[in-house]
Design brief:
The protein is mainly α and 656 residues long. Helices cover 60% and strands 4% of the residues.
Amino acid sequence: MEAILTDCVQSSLRHFMFKNAIFLCERLCAEFPSEVNLQLLAACYLQNNQAHSAYHILKGTQMAQSRYLFAISCFQMDLLNEAETALCPANEPGGEIPNGAAGHYLLGLIYRYTDRQKSAIHHFRLALSIDPLLWAAYEELCLLGAAEEAAVVFGEAAALSIQKQYLNHGLASSNLHTSSEDCNLVSSQNFGSEDVSPRQLKHTQGSNLRDIPAAALSGAASQSQYGGPSNMLFYNTPSPMASQLSGVAPPPLCRNVQPNGSNLNAVNTDSSPRSVVNSTIQAPRRKFVDEGKLRKISGRLFSDSGPRRSTRLAGDAGTNTNANTTAIAGNGTNSSFKYLGSSKLTSVALRAVTVRKGQSWANENIEEGIQNEAFDDSHANMASTTSSSFPSGDVRPLDQDGATVPVGGVVISSSKVISGASEVLGLLRTLGEGYRLSCLYRCQDALDTYVRLPLKHYNTSWVLSKVGKAHFELVDYLEADRAFNLARRASLCSLEGMDIYSTVLYHLKEDMKLSYLAQELISTDRLAPQSWCAMGNCYSLQKDHETALKNFQRAVQLNSRFVYAHTLCGHEYVALEDFENGIKSYQNALRIDSRHYNAWYGLGMIFLRQEKFEFSEHHFGMAFDINPRSSVIMSYLGTALHALKVRLLSVLFIIS
C-alpha cells in the first residue's frame, strides 16, 4: 500500500496535479507516518505554493533533506533567520550543508538578503565549485559585483569537475552492468534444467511489486540516481515453475556473488526503482550444466517467438538507460569475463538482456562446442572481484576506455559527454562574460560580447532583453526599444526585462505603445511585478502619480524583493514631493541590492532639491562608483560639487 501511494503521489507531481498529490500524500502520511513521507508531503505543498503548510509539518525535523525543505519554506515566507538555522544548526557549527550546491546557493541568498555580502559571495562560490553548471549562483555573483571572469569560472577546472562527475557515474554503471552479468551466470546454472518461459519469469518478478516498502523504494532510487554500485537491493522471488518441479527450496531469481558473501545486486523491471531485501533464503545451486539440455530449453524458449529479442532490442542499444540494472538470464555464457585460476568457464549460449529504466538493450555472445566444465563459487567470487576492482575515485579521461555513460536517461559515449560539456561551458563563457560586463555597467563591452553568440542563442528572449537593457544604460533608447521589441517577438509570454522596457517607452513618451504593453503584460500574468511596473509607468506618463504609485506598491506587494519596484515608488513620492517616504523607498531598494545605483541616484536628487549638498554629493558619488559611465550621474554629481564649491567660496569670503 505504501509503495502504491508513493508512486501515485509522484505520478501526480509529474503531471502537475498538485491537489491530487497532496490528498494522496496526506493518506500516505496518515497510514505510514515517517519523516521520509513528510518530506514528500512538504514537496507537494511547496509545488502548490503552500510554503506555510510545509513549514508547519517540517518544523523540528532533523534529516538533511527535511532541513533543506524547511529552509525553502522559511525563505519563501521571508523567515530568513529560521532558514539559516535550518541549514546551519547551532549545535553543528561545522556541519555539512544539506543538498550540496543547492544548499550553498540558498544559504548565499539568505546572507545576501540579510546584508552579509562576504558570506553570500563565499557560499555562491562554493556552490559553483560543486556544480559548475549552477548558472543562478554565477548570476548572483555578477549582481554583487564579485564574479570572476567567465573564462575562469567556466574554464578547465569546471570541465574537469564535470568530467569527474560523469566518470564516477559511468564507472558505477559499468560495475553494475558487470555484476549483473555475473548474476546471469549464476541464474543460468539455476534454471538450466527447468522449463521456464520468459513470460512466466517476468510474471514472477512483477508479482511481488505490491510487497515493496517505501523505504526500499527511496533507498534504491537514491542509489540508482547517482549510479552507486554498492548497497543495491534485489529481488529474491522463487519461480512458480521451480516450486512445482522440485521439492527443495527454490533458488533466487538473481544472485550476485561477492567475496564478502553479501548479496548486493539490483533487479528492476520498469522505470521506477523497485527493490526488496530478502537475503535469508539461500537455495542449493546446481554445479553442472547439461549443454544438450540447455540447447533444448533454448529452442523451446525462442523458436516460436518470431524475431529474436536481440534484433528487436538492438535498435535501443546505447539510447535509453539508467544506473538501475536488471539481469534476466536465458541460456549460455557471456564471453566478456576473465577468470582467475586454472578452470575455464564453459562458454555456452548465454543471452543476457539488461533492462534500464524501462528500455532494453541486448548484449549477446554465442559460442558453442566447448566441453562442459564445473563452475564453482570461488570462480564466481573472483569474477565479481575482478569486474569491480576499478577504483571509483579514478579521474582518468572518459574516452580512455571508450565507455558509455548514462546522462538524463540516455546512454551516450564518453567522448560525446566530454565534447558536450565543452560546448555547454563554451556557451556559458560567452553568456557569463556578457552578463558580468553588463552588471559592471560596461555596456558596450557587453554588447560586443553578446554579438559573438550563435544566432540561435542571440535571438532568444533572455539575450535580447539583456541587449535592450545595455542600450538603456547607454541612454540609447531607440536601440533599446528595438531590442526589447525583438525580445517580445521571440517570446510573448516572457516577462524578462519588461519593467525596463516600460521605462524605455516612458522616456520615449510612447504613450500608445506603453499602454498596449501594460495591457499585454497584465493579461499575460497579473501576479508578476513587471506587469504592474509597466502599468505604473503608463499612469506616470499621464502625470497621474497617485495611481502610478498604487500600481508600483502593488508590484512591491507581489514581490517584496523586486528592487526596481521600490525605486519606482521612490520616484513617484518625489514627484508628489513626499520626500520622507521617497527616502524610505530608496533605502528599501538598497537593503535588497546595495549596487542598485538608481536608488543612490534618487537619494542624491532628494538631497539636492533640499539643498543638502554634502549628502547629495555623497549619494551621487556612490552611484558614480557603481556606474561610472552614466552621463546623467556625472552631470548631477558635477552640479552637487559645484554647489559645494560655491558654498565653500561664500563661507571663505564671509570669514575673510
